């Protein structure tokens, strides 16, 4: 049985940095989209909320119109009863009957007066709600226009980058398989905890890229020897020498548009 080839530290460092270059490019693409996906979602939620508000206002108006019709029926019934009592009043036999019917007529007049008052209140509410509906429709029209603009903007960016992003996502998975699980987990953890998602950085002018803390010359020699994985004591980032970084950047150019 053939002995499995042992991966050297240098090969691990190269694979890690290749993965970093790919993931950094994916980050750049996502940053290009910026807050647009969230803005689109927020605008969609706002438009949906305004649509729901319009539906509720229209339902309120329908209920108020039903109430107005009910009050109109009350007025018709009261007028009908009032005429009936007025006819009865012509045939009363004594003052007691006359007073009793007069009270009934007065009661119907009060019913009519109260119903007309309620109708006026309902109509005022309908008028107010129609004003709010008009304002809401205007606001919704503005939001829909803004939403279309943002969707078109996002669609344009996605169209430009989706092919490259798809290739890079695939390559990110491929390169991840070349790195042992413990090192890969450490890489992802560092990426999450540091600014700009840079987990693997090269030495630049004697300092760690990304943190800019000076690295002692002896430490720089160790990093350049590529015999062990060395991390920046300040940020936890994996450190590589500038020459290795330049070689891998050149090699990875073919994957970037």
Question: How would you characterize this protein structure?
Answer:
With 257 residues, this protein is mainly alpha-helical. It folds into 2 domains: 9-32 and 180-255, Helix Hairpins; 36-163, Helix Hairpins. It is built from 6 helices and 4 strands. The chain has helices spanning 9-33, 36-89, 95-176, 181-193, 217-225, 242-252, and strands spanning 200-204, 207-208, 230-231, 238-240. The protein has a 4-stranded mixed beta sheet with strand order 2-1-4-3. Helix 1 (9-33) packs across helix 6 (242-252). It is rod-shaped and about 125 Å long. The two termini are 43 Å apart.
The gist of it:
The protein has 257 residues and is mainly α. It is built from six helices and four strands.
Which key terms come to mind for this protein?
257 residues, Helix Hairpins, four-stranded mixed β-sheet, 6 helices, 4 strands, 5% strand
In the CATH classification, which architecture of the largest domain applies? Orthogonal Bundle
The unreliable regions are: none
**Name of the top-level CATH class of the largest domain:** Mainly Alpha
- Strand percentage: under 5%
Structural class: mainly alpha
Main β sheet profile? 4 strands, mixed
**Total domains, how many?**
2
């Amino acid at each position: 049985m053939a002995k499995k080839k042992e991966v050297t530290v240098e090969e691990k460092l190269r694979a890690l940095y290749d993965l970093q270059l790919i993931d950094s490019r994916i980050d750049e693409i996502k940053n290009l989209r910026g807050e647009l996906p969230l803005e689109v979602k927020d605008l969609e939620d706002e438009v949906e909320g305004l649509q729901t508000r319009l539906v509720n206002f229209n339902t309120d108006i329908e209920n108020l119109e039903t109430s107005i019709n009910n009050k109109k029926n009350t007025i018709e019934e009261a007028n009908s009863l009032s005429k009936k009592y007025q006819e009865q009043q012509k045939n009363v036999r004594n003052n007691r009957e006359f007073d009793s019917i007069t009270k009934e007529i007065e009661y119907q007049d009060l019913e009519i007066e109260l119903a007309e008052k309620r109708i006026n209140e309902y109509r005022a509410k309908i008028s107010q709600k129609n004003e709010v509906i008009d304002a809401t429709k205007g606001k919704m029209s503005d939001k829909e226009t803004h939403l279309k603009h943002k969707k078109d903007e996002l669609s344009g960016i996605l169209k430009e980058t989706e092919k490259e992003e798809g290739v890079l996502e695939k390559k990110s998975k491929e390169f991840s398989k070349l790195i042992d699980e413990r090192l890969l987990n450490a890489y992802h953890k560092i990426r999450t905890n540091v600014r700009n998602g840079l987990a693997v950085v090269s030495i630049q002018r004697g300092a760690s890229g990304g943190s800019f803390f000076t690295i002692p010359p002896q430490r720089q020699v160790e990093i350049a020897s590529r015999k062990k994985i060395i991390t920046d004591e300040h940020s936890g980032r994996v450190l590589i020498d500038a020459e290795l970084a330049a070689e891998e950047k050149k090699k990875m150019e073919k994957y970037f548009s």
